[in-house]
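Human: If only I could read backbone structure tokens as easily as an amino acid sequence. Take your time, and here it is.
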Amino acid sequence: MIHVGGVPDWVPAGQLLGPAFRREEGGWMAELPRSAEADVAARLRGISLGGGPLAVTVDPPLPRALVRAARERDARARRDTTPGFSRSGVRLDDEGRWSLTPEELALALGKEAGGQPVIDATAGCGGNAIGFARAGCAVTAIDRDPVRLALARHNAALYGVSIRFLVGDAATLIPTMPPALVFVDPPWGRDWSKAGSGLEQLPLLPALLPLCRAGWWAKVPPSFDPAELLGCTPIAWFGTAAGDVHRVKFLVLKCDAAAAL
């Protein structure tokens, strides 16, 4: 028997855990073959969602050999992840190679915007801005780093989309622009806390979100606690490849008006 506690109500438990799990008092439970229990435990090891860790218990405890084998399978599976840009000729810097929103997910996010104008306040190499533009949104992409914005401009040309690019501080530029949905993908850093994270780790959010007159979306780590931003709706985004289809890649927080910070 395997039991998983700490899954937030807004996370689709069936996709995270598998269809065999049923809701019980204090969490989710399933009776699985021992090797399958080991695989679930390995996949969820060290994972926090929505500000708190998942609690995984298996009764009776798994033999060490099964645990080792499951962790090896999990390590191999993690190599098969949802890809970033798919077109040849794209340009990325080191940060973009590991932080880029996968192309398929960026396009799906863009479609959810429903064609409304979007300001990408932290454009980076352009993954999110291109996704919104491909979905039919009028996009303004902002970044402080002219080198990164040049990469985004090059990548946008490869995808054949028109985006307005601005070099500068989004906190200064946004108040001078017409109201639009503001998308913020703040830099997490390679060492973002998987045990739990909040506004203290992402200081760009409290600096920008009160300026967003027409609402905002923020892409944050899975471990971020949405309770720190009143009035937002958290959505868990999973990968689509075999290695990450059951993994929360990031959260998108949505708010129709400026957050109460």
In short: The radius of gyration is 20 Å. Residues 232 and 255 are 5 Å apart (CA to CA). The domain at 94-255 is CATH 3.40.50.150 (Rossmann fold).
